[in-house]
Amino acid sequence: MDYCFGVDIGGTTVKIGLFQEDGNIREKWEIKTRTEEKGCRILPDIAKSLLNSLEKNGISKENVAGIGIGVPAPITEDGVVKATANLGWEYKNVKEEMEELTGIRTATGNDANVAALGEMWLGGGRGCKNMIMVTLGTGVGGGILINGKILTGEHGAGGEIGHLCVNYEETDNCGCGNHGCLEQYASATGITRLAKKKLDSTDRETLLRKGPVNAKTVFDAVKAGDEVADEIAVEFGTYLGHALANLAAAVDPAAIVIGGGVSKAGEVLLPYIKKPYQERAFFADRDVKFTLAELGNDAGICGAAKLVLD
Amino acid sequence: MDYCFGVDIGGTTVKIGLFQEDGNIREKWEIKTRTEEKGCRILPDIAKSLLNSLEKNGISKENVAGIGIGVPAPITEDGVVKATANLGWEYKNVKEEMEELTGIRTATGNDANVAALGEMWLGGGRGCKNMIMVTLGTGVGGGILINGKILTGEHGAGGEIGHLCVNYEETDNCGCGNHGCLEQYASATGITRLAKKKLDSTDRETLLRKGPVNAKTVFDAVKAGDEVADEIAVEFGTYLGHALANLAAAVDPAAIVIGGGVSKAGEVLLPYIKKPYQERAFFADRDVKFTLAELGNDAGICGAAKLVLD
C-alpha cells in the first residue's frame, strides 16, 4: 500500500496524480475529458490511463491503496451522481463503475469539497481538522471539513457556500435561479459586476478606467492605492466576510482557507474579508485563522488522493 | 451491555434517564443542580445518583455501555468545558472527571446538540442521518447532525444557529453582543419583541390587545385567524426560513426539526417557516422535510444516552 491515485475530473481535462502515501506526487498528467455520447468514455479513459501508469512504473495493484475521484457535480457518499452540468453524465455510480473497470478500491467526492480536503492535507489548512474553504473562481465553490472529513450532505450538495443568500434586495439573477447569492458578489464575475456598477455610479478618477475591468485589475488597483478599487474590495469583502461569519456560527472551524483564481491577488485580500468577519462572528469563532490556498490547480488531485487514504 | 445513562445538566435541575440500548427508558428522575462553590458538587452528585440507581436495579457496571452527558456550554470533542454561564464551572474535563467518579465510560456534548441527536434517534428526525434541529426557546439553540454524528466544531460551538446574523440593519443588541442575530426574531423573546413592535406600529384591531403578548398568544391568535398576528408570524417565519435556507446550502440536510417551547404552537408554525425557506433554498435542498420535535424535555437525556451507544 505505497501508492494511490488522485483524479480531478473537469469539463475539458482530467487531471491525474500518482501519489505516495506521504503526499509526494510521483507523477502527474492530464487527459482530455471526452464528454460526447453522454460522457460514456470518461471513466474508461481514466481507468486505462491509471492502469498504464501502473504498468509503466512497475507498480502492482496490491501496492495501490485506491483511486480517489473528484467530480464537478453533487455526488453522494455512495458515489452516485444524478446529473452533471458539463460532463454529459446523467445517473451514474462513479465509485462502482471505476472499481469494475480497474479492480481497485475507489472513493469519490465533489470537486470543490475534494479541493478543500487537499488544502487541509497538504496546503493552506495543514494541521486543521475543522475547516471551511471557499473557492473564488468564475463561481464561488466551497468545502466544509468536519473532524477531517468532507461534509457531503444528504444529496451530495454540502458546502454550496456560493449559494448562501447575502442580499435579499438583489434583483439580478444568480445562475442557480435565486438572487442575492454570495457568488454574485465574491466570484471573479461578481467582482467585475460590482466594479462596473461602481464605475457607473461615480465619475471619480480611478485606474480602473484605463483598461479592462476584472477581479485582477481591481486588486492590482487596490495594491496601487486606488480609492475606488478599495471601495469595491470593501464591498466584496463585506459580503464574503459576513457570509463566512454566519457559516462559522454553524460550523465552528479552526481555519478558513481562501482559494480560486481571485485568491491569486494574494495577502492583500485577507484584511478585506477578515474585518467584516470579525465584526459579525459569534465570539467563540472570532479567532479563526484566515489563510490563502497553496496548492492551486493541484488541490483537486491531492484531495482526491487523500479520500482513499482516510 | 444492556443499559446506558443519559444525563442532561441544566442550571436548576439535572435530568437523568436509565435507558435500555433499544431506546426504552427504564427509569427517569431529576436531581438538583448545586451550582455553589464553582459547581464542584454537580458531577459527584450525578455520579452518586447513577451508582445508586445501578444498585437499586441490581445492574452491574459491566452491563452499562456508558454515561452520556449534555452540558449547557460549548464542550470540545474531548469533553472539556472552558466556562459556563450558569453552572459555576470554569475549566473542567467533564468526561475524565465522570469516568474517575464512576469507573464507567463517559461521552459528552453540548445540550442543544445532544437534544438534536435525541430527536434523530427517537423523535422528529427518526431515520435521518443529516439533520438540522433548531430549538426555539428563551433563546434559539441548534444542533447539526452529519452522518448521524453531532457537528461539535473546533471549540465545541458548532450549531450556534441562534447567532446567525439575519438583519444587518438591526440596532437592538443580542445577548451575545452582536445585533441582528436570528435569536432576536425567532426565540420566544424575539417573537414577543416583534409582536410589540407591530402593535406599536399599527392601530388595527387584534386579539393581541386583549391580554398578554407572547409567543403563545401570538400563535393562538394566528389560529383564531387574527390578521395582525399572521403578519407577525410571517416576519418570524421569514427570518427563520431564510436563515435555515442558508444553513441548508452549507449542510445539505434531509430534515429540519423545529423544537423548543415555541414549537408547542404545533403544525401551524411550519408553513410560516417552509414558504420562505423554499423561496430561498438552493435547488438541491428544496425538498427537505420539516417536522416538529417530539421528545419535549426528554430530548436531552435521549440524545445523551445515544452519545454512548454510537
From TrEMBL, chains A, B:
Recorded hits in NCBIfam families, A to Z, give:
ROK_glcA_fam
Signal peptide (from-to): none
Which parts of the chain span the membrane according to its record? none
Q: Which InterPro entries match?
A: ATPase_NBD, ROK, ROK_cs, ROK_glcA
Q: PROSITE patterns given for it?
A: ROK
Q: What start-end ranges are recorded for coiled-coil regions in this protein?
A: none
Gene this chain is encoded by: glcK
Keyword Nucleus assigned to the entry: answer is no
Please tell me whether the keyword Nucleotidyltransferase is annotated for this protein.
Answer: no
Q: Name one GO molecular function term.
A: ATP binding
Q: Read off the Pfam families from this record.
A: ROK
State what protein this is by name.
Answer: Glucokinase
One GO term under biological process is: glycolytic process
Record-listed E.C. numbers: 2.7.1.2
